[in-house]
Write a structure and sequence with these properties.
The complex is a heterodimer of chains A (583) and B (285).
Chain A: H1 2-20, H2 34-38, E1 59-60, E2 74-80, E3 94-96, E4 99-104, E5 108-113, E6 119-124, E7 143-145, E8 148-152, E9 157-162, E10 168-173, E11 188-190, E12 193-196, E13 208-213, E14 219-224, E15 230-233, E16 236-240, E17 264-267, E18 272-276, E19 297-301, E20 308-313, E21 329-335, E22 338-346, E23 351-356, E24 362-367, E25 375-378, E26 385-387, E27 404-406, E28 420-421, E29 428-433, E30 435-447, E31 450-461, E32 468-474, E33 479-486, E34 494-497, E35 501-505, E36 510-515, E37 521-526, E38 536-540, E39 543-550, E40 575-580
Parallel strand pairs in A: 1-34
Antiparallel strand pairs in A: 2-40, 3-4, 4-5, 5-6, 7-8, 8-9, 9-10, 11-12, 12-13, 13-14, 14-15, 15-16, 17-18, 18-19, 19-20, 21-22, 22-23, 23-24, 25-26, 27-30, 28-29, 29-32, 30-31, 32-33, 34-35, 35-36, 36-37, 38-39, 39-40
Chain B: H1 4-16, H2 28-35, E1 37-43, E2 51-53, E3 56-58, H3 60-72, E4 75-81, H4 87-96, E5 108-113, H5 116-121, E6 125-134, E7 136-141, E8 159-162, H6 166-173, E9 183-186, H7 189-197, E10 203-207, H8 208-218, E11 223-225, E12 238-245, H9 249-265, H10 267-273
Parallel strand pairs in B: 1-4, 1-5, 8-9, 8-10
Antiparallel strand pairs in B: 2-3, 5-12, 6-12, 7-10, 7-11
Helix pairs in contact in B: 2-9, 7-8
Chain lengths: 583, 285
């Protein structure tokens, strides 16, 4: 009902402006406010936040396009990102005021006319050639606020641009790329602060979440994710994270990893930010006995002070590279007759966790992939995994040693690509992958010209017919209601709508639509390159639009072996595709 | 700062997904001589081999790059590369493909392992001119630690090591973690040695070149070095050589000749000695 009212209102506003010959400024020239951002999930005329709402449910109330007519969906236009820089396009578009903003590979930001696809402006970050990005040169999206559009660059800068002109308003270094830091996630804006995490893989870094004044770029607070490190608030010490040496030996907490490379979500109801943290360093778990807090965890953080309110660790003492960075999506449901404020996360380690988001207590944990060799379920009393010790990769030695088979592989049951939650069906739609890896000690390894004890691995499929699987998970029962299998690994985000639809892309180049209740494939369109971005939908001039980025890349093509057979013929690309129903 | 030409070349390499090899008629050695430039890749922040002292790039590998260029009658263009997760990645970035962000491949890269099993895994490169035998060593302050004692007896003394290195794994993992609490980590081996000289540790486990060079630069006295091998230590040492693109064997052959002559003439030993490091012939050479 609400959706229809909004739709007709938007349509009327746009029509009157067109009639008057006015420029296409349907919305307030001052731009999105804090309140607008918080209400993004219920304003179908725009897409203001990464995740289509601060909770990042990626659910739209729109239903003009539905399961009965989606088969008629056609392109309205496409827009190329041009140049030679066509690598993985993992971005989610932002749509506001007649403009579609997308970020592209190599830290570029584009503004396209939302009605014609014509480019309004483009910003290319000038990147030093010494950056060593671990996993392609991707960027996952921008944040909008007032007259600004903001994004993070590979050399670990946060850049605020004027959204009308693309001119730099402020540009701040948020970490030192020469020390191994990078940035690829979409930032978020909460209460006038731009809030973001950091990236950097195995280079002796520590994770952190930071908040800056969105208008000036000045640092307000900083919260390291590894115990023992000091947080700050307004330039003053604000308490250390955790308790020094409680779960780390010696001085390893100073370089403990735990990067927050996927950004976060926010729940206005509990006033909590949720950030996931990466795996601990060094990779060899035998050298760092203990839980290694707060790596491979979800942290609930006070957005006003940067203080950690609770944590839940999905993989204590990780030994498989199971980052815990995945998005934690707040939702409400009735469990055993009791209405609860919950949140859910589909982890790299293959388990789907439902937590009480007010305190971080585990409610349920269910396997969402074919196989988890590292643990046999999660203990609901302790909240810890039932480890299978024999399947932990061994300590490094000079002997080649025995190979351990681990599933999921280190690329995870689910990697960066965000899932969606439908308020209509009450289901989560998880873009997952079924694959494992052989991992062994590699005595003949070299790092920076010196002998080193590394690990060798090969990733391999574990099923004949697929690696990728889009799965509909019932968070109340932990049951998978349907699945769509895909030959190549899935690497793109998911969108669900009140039109009983689920959209996601495939490396084979298709954007696909499924029936949200049955999983039946209803529509597909070949975009010309692999789809690893996150689709969005909005309403404009009375019509519902769907948009997605096309452009194959990301971490998957970097790893060969048997898995590569599923994507070796996929070509590079870089384009925004926009769809609607024919009139 | 990158020149526009470098950017375009890097971009072309990326667009095709592989480095565009020079035409077959442009033999790599002739090309270097025609252009008058030998582009040499060295590791960034790798004291005593290649590192910046007060903004100036110096070190044994830097001197070697100059030596090669001089003997070839060309100018050296020395490019520093940031180490990636493994040397195979470094060879891709620096030699046969180029960096994802536009780093232009070099004609030759120094300080790569010369190890048959390793070389067999990298068929895009030809490995030439092994020029040094490297190994790890333990050094300590004479009045604070007995270097030749069984390592467990070092419990309670501060020990320094490069983070995530074989010395780190060894000290932390020894005797079920008996020394783990005593180990302080540093970004490089040279910084670990420096930390010991600064009084922050009683002993250090680092490469022989790192120890010798820092002791030399600081004119340090009263430092002992362990004479006997460390029990159950993972590395008996390794050879260091150079890498060129697989199709650059003419250049590789010329470099091998230059290096062999420099070893015979004593030039190599003198070059190492200038940095305080004793020249040790590679075992493969």
């Amino acid at each position: 009902m609400k959706g229809r009212f909004m739709r007709s209102l938007c349509g009327a506003a746009a029509l009157s402006l067109v009639a008057a010959g006015a420029p296409l400024l349907a919305q307030n020239a001052t731009g999105p406010t804090d309140a607008d951002l918080m209400a993004d999930a219920s304003s179908p005329g725009d897409v203001l936040t990464y995740g289509m709402g601060p909770q990042a449910q990626r659910f739209s109330q729109l239903k003009q396009i539905d399961a009965s007519n989606v088969s008629k969906l056609v392109p309205a236009f496409a827009a190329s990102l041009g140049g030679e820089k066509q690598r993985g396009q993992e971005s989610q578009p932002i749509v506001y005021d007649g403009t579609i903003y997308v970020t592209g590979s190599y830290s570029r930001l584009f503004a396209f006319d939302a009605r014609t696809g014509e480019e309004k402006w483009e910003y290319d970050a000038r990147l030093p050639d010494a950056i060593m990005p671990c996993c392609d040169v991707v960027n996952r999206g921008a944040a909008i606020y007032g007259d600004k559009i903001l994004f993070a660059t590979l050399d670990a800068h946060m850049v605020a641009l004027n959204r009308h002109t693309g001119k730099v308003v402020w540009n701040k270094q948020i970490a030192d790329y020469q020390a191994g830091y990078s940035a690829t996630a979409a930032p978020m804006v909460v209460k006038g602060k731009v809030i973001y995490g950091n990236s950097g893989g195995e280079f002796g870094i520590t994770g952190a979440v930071e908040a800056r004044d969105v208008n000036t770029g000045e640092l307000i607070w900083r919260r390291p994710t590894i115990e023992g490190n000091m947080g700050t608030l307004n330039g003053k010490d604000n308490g250390i994270t955790g308790k020094t040496n409680a779960s780390w030996p010696g001085d390893l907490w100073k370089t403990g990893g735990g990067a927050t490379w996927l950004g976060g979500t926010y729940d206005p109801e509990t006033n909590l930010l949720f950030f996931g943290t990466g795996n601990p360093a060094p990779w060899n778990s035998h050298l760092r006995p203990g839980d290694n807090l707060y790596t491979s965890s979800t942290l609930a953080i006070d957005p006003d002070t940067g203080v950690i309110k609770w944590h839940y660790q999905t993989t204590p003492h990780d030994g498989w590279d199971f980052d815990g960075v995945n998005e934690f999506i707040p939702f409400d449901a009735t469990i055993n007759g009791k209405p609860m404020k919950l949140g859910a996360k589909a982890d790299r380690n293959g388990y789907f966790y439902v937590l009480d988001r007010t305190n971080g207590k585990l409610v349920s944990a269910s396997k969402f992939v074919m196989q988890t060799t590292w643990a046999n379920g999660i203990n609901l009393k302790t909240g810890r995994p039932n480890y299978i010790d024999a399947n932990r990769p061994g300590a490094p030695t000079t002997a080649k040693g025995t190979s351990v088979f681990a599933s999921p592989s280190f690329l995870g049951g689910k990697n960066w690509m965000p899932m969606a939650y439908s308020q209509d069906t009450g289901l989560f739609y998880i873009p997952s992958n079924d694959w494992g890896m052989d991992i062994w000690n590699e005595p003949i390894a070299y790092k920076k010209g010196a002998a080193y004890l590394g690990a060798g691995f090969t990733i391999k499929p574990i099923a004949d017919d697929h690696i990728g699987a889009l799965r509909a998970m019932d968070p109340k029962t932990g049951k998978i209601l349907w699945e769509y299998k895909n030959k190549a690994p899935l690497w793109g985000g998911v969108l669900t709508t009140a039109g009983n639809l689920v959209f996601t892309g495939t490396p084979e180049g298709y954007l696909k639509a499924f029936d949200a209740r049955t999983g039946q494939e209803l529509w597909k369109f070949q975009t010309g390159s692999g789809v690893v971005g996150s689709p969005v939908t909005w309403e404009q001039d009375g019509e519902q639009y769907v948009a997605v980025m096309s452009g194959w890349g990301g971490a998957v093509p970097l790893w060969g072996g048997e898995v590569a057979k599923t994507f070796k013929d996929i070509n590079q690309g870089g384009a925004l595709w926009v769809f609607k129903l024919p009139k | 700062m990158l020149s526009r030409r470098e950017l375009l070349q890097g971009a072309a390499a990326m667009a095709t997904g592989s480095f565009l090899s020079p035409p077959a008629d442009a033999a790599p050695l002739a090309k270097v001589k025609d252009l008058g430039v030998l582009r040499v890749a060295v590791y960034k922040d790798n004291r005593p081999w290649s590192w910046e002292k007060k903004g100036e790039l110096i070190g044994i590998d830097v001197d070697l790059a100059q030596l090669l260029a001089k003997k070839l009658g060309v100018r050296a263009d020395i490019a520093q590369i940031t180490a990636d997760e493994g040397v195979e990645d470094d060879l891709r970035n620096a030699v046969w493909k180029g960096g994802l962000l536009g780093f232009m491949p070099a004609d030759i890269m120094l300080h790569v392992p010369f190890d048959r099993a390793f070389m067999a895994r990298v068929d895009r490169c030809a490995f030439v001119a092994p020029y040094y035998r490297e190994s790890f060593q333990f050094a300590g302050k004479r009045d604070e630690i007995d270097c030749d004692a069984p390592p467990v007896q070092w419990t309670g003394r501060k020990l320094a090591a490069e983070l995530d290195s074989i010395p780190d794994f060894y000290l932390i993992g020894l005797s079920g973690g008996a020394l783990a609490r005593d180990v302080t980590h540093y970004p490089t081996g040279a910084q670990a040695v420096t930390a010991m000289l600064d009084g922050k540790a009683a002993g250090v486990l680092a490469s022989r070149a790192q120890i010798e060079a820092v002791l030399h630069d600081r004119a340090a006295a009263d430092i002992d070095r362990r004479k006997m091998p460390l029990p159950a230590f993972a590395s008996s040492g390794w050879d260091i050589g150079m890498a060129v693109k697989e199709n650059s064997r003419t250049l590789g052959d010329a470099v091998e000749t230059i290096m062999a002559d420099a070893a015979t003439s004593g030039e190599l030993a003198a070059l190492f000695a200038a940095h305080g490091v004793t020249y040790v012939k590679a075992s493969a050479g």
